[in-house]
Sequence to fold (466 residues):
Amino acid sequence: METSSKVIVMGGSWGGIQASVTILKALPANYSIPIILVLHRLRNYDGNLQDVFKHKIALKAVEVEEKETLLPGHVYLAPSNYHVLLENDHTFSLDDSELENYSRPSIDVTFTSVADVFADNTVGILLSGASKDGSSGLKHIFEKQGTVIVQDPDEAEIETMPLAAIQAIPGCTVMKLHQIQAFLLSLHDH
Amino acid sequence: MKLDNEAQFEQDVEELIKEIHTQYGYDFSGYARASVYRRIKRFLSQKHLTSMETLRKELFTDSYFFENFLQEITVNVTEMFRDPSFFLSLRENVLPILSTYPFIKIWDAGCSSGEELFSLAILLKEEGLLDRTKIYATDINQKVLKQAKEGIFSASNMPAYTAGYYAAGGKQEFSSYYSSNYGSVKFDSSLVKNVVIYPHNLATDFSFNEFHLILCRNVLIYFNRELQERVFRLFDESMVSLGYLALGKKETLAMSGISSNYNFVDKNNRIYRKIN
Fold:
């Protein structure tokens, strides 16, 4: 399988699971762009986030394994207690260094790393959450001329994270979940 | 497309890795790059260095500065009873078998500042094995090795460590293992009386003994596949027949050439046993 020229990277915290399910269930199983999803979760929590997505979305939800290659048709979930990084050859690396914004996985860490590899071919989406994680990573995507989207704070379950991003990146695009769905579908290469 | 400044940075890192190998003997060529890039950027920002050139000059004129760099580049974040289910499994599935040996040798590879070492020692003590076990604790980083045997950790971590201890099947009052003093705690030094610590670089050094149990958790995630393979072979050479290998929760032997020599003892906690 060929690796993708584009990538979508999404992050969320409180309210982020529901928001990401809503977006992802609109996408077909053969969606042409790989998706990386970083959701804050309890540390040392063994429960399987994959199961939450399994029957709700057509795409294949998998937990990131180190050295695995990023491929279309998949949603890659950041594992509990590790940061997710991306290598130039589109394989994943995991990292158990310091918490960032009190979080591991941190959204900032993944957004930044992915933007360093995909630059303007990165689509970054920040969803609901009670944290300021994600803003500086999203700003990094913006500086690399990628596309940055923030969930409309009015619609988000918790507005803290979207508001922090809007403040950090005045040029970002604010969308409601159904608009994010439509936008992602417009990127799909049939 | 990757922007030019990022490509330039990455090229500079490759030069730096070569130069560090020549000047100081540490070989980072097999390290996974995404993490190396991130650690170097983080270090630059912490030290308020504006370019790779200034970093280079500092590194090669000041060996203390290099020590500091080494400590930041190699991740030394660790905690006691990380993944309590792993320690519980070790207690229930591995230590009872190890107890059949008259003398037990364990290698804690990449022991960092000693949190895992003390967790392991506490388990061994509670299972009555500590007095006939020798633990070899190694790390690339000499500075953290000095801390490893001291067992002095921040008191603010103790609530989490205590919870981890009980989740790992702890049998005592956790506080009976340490004394508190001014925001720090010091663990009982008798826990590590049979521990030998010394520097060992998994990227370049060789086998030095044979072990019944090798722990190397969350070290291999920082290595590329080639270096991982080197380390797996090193562990295989250093393992007695029917010995145990414990990896981090997201690390696997599956892609390795030695995988057919090993069986899972506990798949979820990544504990393997050498079967031939």
Remarks:
- The CA atoms of residues 77 and 184 of chain A lie 18 Å apart.
